[in-house]
Protein 1
Amino acid sequence: MTVHKITTTIFDGVPSLPPTEQLCQEYHEAKVTEEAAKANAPALALAAQNKKAAIKGHPPYMEKRCNDCHDKSTDSGLIKPKDQICFVCHPTIIKKYYVHGPVSVGACLDCHDPHSSGQPALLKVEKKDLCAVCHKEKRIAESMHKKVTESGMACTDCHDPHDGDAKYFLR
């Protein structure tokens, strides 16, 4: 936006910018695709491709309340740093003693899409595939975990993805 203001001041005939909503949507779609490519995660790339078929939306995004999170005057384009933005509206997400690493550092956007998703809870990938995006290490009680996942259960059926009173976030 700032570059456009400078450019239009110096040069004649510079086309006007498209509406803010279109810029935001194009930026977001490009960012999701870029992040999926960087992570080299096929599931994340598939989620980015399926954006058009989104079935769930974050209320501020769906209601076009972009300013709830975005501020064009900041370098990041956000009202708070990326690792603090979700806590503006969700300050009590951490309630228990043991806290999952990404949650403790505000990396909510590693798992959740801030705008819309075809998955419940605005997840970037299906619930059954989510933990495997990061967790590649050998599981404790591996044979039990294998049986459980083969039966169609997701990690979050036994483990809370945010925090817990028990070690390993067991429910």
Protein 2
Amino acid sequence: MEQMDGLDVVGCERCDALCNSRSRIVNGVGPEDADLLFVGEAPGANEDEQGEPFVGRSGDVLDEALREAGLDRGDVRITNCVRCRPPDNRDPRKGELANCRAYLETEIDRVDPEVVVTLGKVPAEHLLERDVAVTGEAGDVFDVAIAGQPRRVLVSVHPAATLYDPSQKETFEAALSTAAEFTDAQSGQSRLGEF
């Protein structure tokens, strides 16, 4: 029987292919009241092994860009559209995204972030419910309804894009800087200033 324990999904069996390819459900990490909620597409091999989103090389890129933007990984919440690793690291399928959508909406609702930052094409299109030209729209903020609630969604390229195409590094860092400035404007101070 599937259920959520707080923000964690436990025991979900909705997707046969994902259940067969995962070694664990990879839930979100970070404060449950974070101003920024980062959403990736799905766990990869490192995430499946370690049980945490955005570890390994992509996680290192994300952590570095967060520091450059004046943030710490511990200040933000990081999750994925789909919580189980797809076979061969393929993109999650529409049905898999749909099966996990209620979990993501519950997490967004409970965290109630100032901004949801999509990391890559899959989460951007999933949350904005339209085609997204990620490189062209990176750093743009859109007002959308998610689970009936108004939300701000900021589009960003995926951290891994900077590894395959170094010209994307500036685009990625600029998007994170925009997210940090936006939350700073809301709170009136730097997140690092609280520590």
Protein 3
Amino acid sequence: MYFTDRGLEELEKRRGDEEVTLAWVAERLQEFVDTFPEFEIPMERFATWLARLDDPDDD
């Protein structure tokens, strides 16, 4: 199992019943990047991917 899978499974187990806003997620991602600046580009790509996920112009 990949570390990402384990991390996502832990997230689901610990916080799966919570409802959060995208603003909350964006704040947590910013805190993560502030703590681990080497992940700025992957987080930016992930956020951009999420933002454009359902945009038909980005196919």
